[in-house]
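Lay summary

Proteins are chains of building blocks that fold into shapes. Our project writes down both the chain and a compact code for its shape. Here are two examples, one after the other.
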Amino acid sequence: MRFMMLMIPLGYESAPPDVQLDPERVAAMMRYNEALQDAGVLITLDGLHPPSMGARVAFPGGQPVVTDGPFAEAKEVLGGYWMIEVGSREEAIAWAKRCPASENEIIEIRQVQEMSDFSDEVQQAAAGFSELPHAGRA
């Protein structure tokens, strides 16, 4: 089962584009990332620049409208993610609990949808998509 562990650093929604990272915290996180890799559960991971460097595309009335960051209405934003493959939700939670997160960080755990999770009709509608790299893995 694949899970995304989504890092939500509280306050990151208002971080400036040139936000500086604490080298000690980065080193601790790299040790955690190595533990995930050494255990053979890590698929991929990435950190994300703050919303002040991003954009949102909304579709009011079906037409795309672009808003540059930061986003005034944002209360929580993603700071990064890990994609892991483990045997259960409980195992994903156990890995998240090992993260050296600070008191202003939250990890949300979400199971990745697999094609086998869907009805035959939905699988037929998505036919061919599973041929893309990593798409719809079972």
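And here is the second example, written the same way.
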Amino acid sequence: MAGKKTAGAHQDAVASIVGDWARERPELDTAPLEVLARLHRTFLRYSTRLTTAIDRHGLSVAGFDVLTALRRSGAPYRLTAGQLADSGLVSSAGVTLRIDRLEKDGLIVRERDAGDRRVVYSRLTVAGLAKVDEVFAEHLDNERRMLGGLTPAECRQLARLLSRLERSITDSDTDPGPAGGQDAPGGQ
């Protein structure tokens, strides 16, 4: 039946966008959209699923990032606010607000360093350790389901390519780009 989507049908919105630009501005090379627009759309879908799963546990994604950073640090599961900001996934903006909320929820406590009272650590409580272990295990199951359409070899290949893409994007910060500012706007 025309116009009806089947369960296996997949409309590629990026291909449609690229086709539209090819028709409207055939002189432009829209090849970057093939990768980066798909990456953006994939991230939005991933982010929605991640947020929904974390919300079910009464956590924000930012709070979850703090808990996982503390858990990854190993016993005694404590870091300073600066160390949390440097841990990789936690930005320095709002670290104190995140810590305040997690402390209010009984998932972390603040402790002063015995040798230097100016140093304050955030440490997982027993409840915080149990919560992060439970939520992180579910998080990995959720991510595994999202990757279910790829083989293990494809996942490894994609991980390598995404690592290279991240380096390429980081390296582009020092590259002034093409003359005339022909970068496509975010809206594609």
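What can we say about the second shape? The beta strands are 78-80, 108-112, 120-124.
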